[in-house]
Amino acid sequence: MENEIEKFDIAVIGGGHAGCEAALAAARLNKTCVMFTINLDAVGNMPCNPSIGGTAKGHLVREIDALGGEMGKAADAAMIQRRMLNMGKGPAVHSLRAQEDRARYRIDMKRRLEQQQNLMLRQAEVIDIEKKDGFFYLTIHTNVVYRAASVIIATGTYLEGRVIVGETSYPSGPDGMFPSRRLSGALRKMGISLMRFKTGTPARIHRRGIDVSVMEEQKGDEDITAFSFETEKPKDNAVSCFLTYTNKKTHDIIRANLDRSPLFSGMIDGVGPRYCPSIEDKVVRFADKERHQLFIEPMGIDTEEMYVQGMSSSLPEDVQKEMLHSVKGLENAQIMRCAYAIEYDCADPTQLKASLEFKGIPNLYGAGQFNGTSGYEEAAAQGLMAGINAARALDKKAPVILGRDEAYIGVLIDDLVTKGTREPYRMMTSRAEYRLLLRQDNADARLTRKGYEIGLISRERYEAFLQKEQDIENEIRRISQITLPPSAAINAWLESCGESTISTGVKMTELLRRPAISYDMLAPFDSKRPVLPKAVTREAEVRVQYEGYINRQKAAVERFRKNEELSLGEDFDYDAVYGLRIEAREKLMKFRPENIGQASRISGVSPADIGVLLIYLEARRREKGR
């Protein structure tokens, strides 16, 4: 290789949210790392909505932070508005969402990467990759070759990217960046099967053309929570968002122009996200709905661009303008960037192990939208795990694989590698069987110890975490020992809360379990209450209030684990298992699940097939024990 100039332990292809986390994790685990990006100004870019978090996604960000990742810290630094979603429901689905200053987030993330030891950033398009003598050789567009022991592919929506607006289409990455034109062919040569997916984004409009006085103002929460457990003082809210709606006229405009929509004309080949459809798709699929929500969101502090959340489209620009002007408050809207759809190549994730390493191609990993997902948070979570596992593999250490009962990250990756996806995968709370155990408030309790053992959490942070856990347990123990006697004052207060009065002494924890009562409300009857951080008292409150439900879920996890962790291995001989249905045998041989749990989640493998496998494994265990 005459053009070889640099040798690295790990090469990351892509500088989006997956690539950033992968590169940082690998470098922090003492691996020399190079991260390639087509444009250095697009590192950590948000080509779609200018926000981090949201339902289930906020859980992912807090898990990333608890493991030692960077997204939560960067999001806190660039936050301009913050809201906790689903507060009218139980704590399992409370999800933090923050509006971000898009430019500041990108600049801040790039700075974090630039300052990281062991990590080099390189603006270049990787056009070829081949494996030889145990190493990967990556050729960039200037015909220079780099060598790496391990590679993480995190190409986002750049692979053979094609932007579509009405009857117009052209090769492009997101936000007008160059696409990656040659890497797809190289990956196919390596035996990687690629799919064609589509995503889209709404128009950006100028603030001066918006009449917010006729819209509903959406302010941020006064009680501000941070994404990162290390952020001591979150920033104050600096902006408001605004809510408006489409109407009959909007829908009539869309219906009248469906023949010009590339989504319905057949011009778009890629499969789009079902849970984040374009406005034309929503109007067709939900024909009975009279209106759809549109959120008008600032793109940052130093820009007049506003994002029209809920109006993703690939209709021609003249139609986009007409439908925007039909919306209340947007009659004079001025388009700064038109909405567009983008098609791109991505990998079938069933080719990956739970470590995100490709089966049959040691030390090659996939992460982010390249694995068929949608969303910054899903991408960052995979990038972190790919970076960790790539580094550990070079150190001859076992991969870190999170269970479905341990983290939303575990649910995300398990879904991808066992079930695959036929559309851009989006994380939702409903995908997690044990979501009461996987709350965003206890992400540190679930994962900080693991992050410390991996090597991404400092000793100082780990000791602070241990102290917090001790404070929570001490407070739960303290209030569980307090008995409140009946009195006129307490009964008058209970009646004012809509709760029944007491005639005998009641444990404070019993009162706390009543639906209308919170920890803070009990303060007047708790004279010896210590001064504790809000994070401690909030967690103590949840653990007391939901103790019964939490214990039931923990018991269900233990029952499930007995079979979940039974190993199958890559070389398991399914032909030797008598009684397996033909379809199940074919699926199992194709996907090669690592354990019974993964096998049970493969489409086409029935509970009866799992029963046959369990009987076979037990018989084999007894034979070995003789």
Descriptive report:
The protein is of the alpha+beta class and 626 residues long. Helices cover 36% and strands 18% of the residues. The protein is built from 20 helices and 22 strands. The strands form 5 sheets. Strands 1, 2, 6, 7, 8, 9 and 20 form a 7-stranded mixed beta sheet that branches. Strands 14-15-16-17-13-18 form a 6-stranded antiparallel beta sheet, with no helix packed on it. β7 (126-132) and β8 form a beta hairpin. It is globular and about 80 Å long.
Strand content: 15-25%
Q: Uncertain runs with pLDDT below 50, 5 residues or more? A: none
Question: How many distinct helices?
Answer: 20
Largest sheet, strands/sense/barrel: 7 strands, mixed
Set out the fold topology.
Layout: E1 4-13, H1 17-28, E2 33-37, E3 51-53, H2 57-67, H3 71-78, E4 79-85, E5 95-100, H4 102-114, E6 119-123, E7 126-132, E8 135-140, E9 145-153, E10 162-165, E11 168-171, H5 183-189, E12 194-201, E13 204-206, E14 216-218, E15 241-245, H6 248-256, H7 262-265, H8 279-285, E16 293-298, E17 305-309, H9 317-325, E18 335-337, E19 340-347, E20 364-366, H10 376-394, H11 408-419, H12 443-454, H13 459-480, E21 483-484, H14 488-496, E22 506-507, H15 508-512, H16 534-545, H17 547-564, H18 582-591, H19 596-600, H20 607-625
Parallel strand pairs: 1-2, 1-9, 2-6, 9-20
Antiparallel strand pairs: 3-5, 4-5, 7-8, 8-9, 10-11, 10-19, 12-19, 13-17, 13-18, 14-15, 15-16, 16-17, 21-22
Helix pairs in contact: 1-10, 2-10, 2-12, 3-4, 6-9, 12-13, 13-16
Features:
626 residues, alpha+beta, six-stranded antiparallel sheet, 20 helices, 22 strands, 18% strand, globular
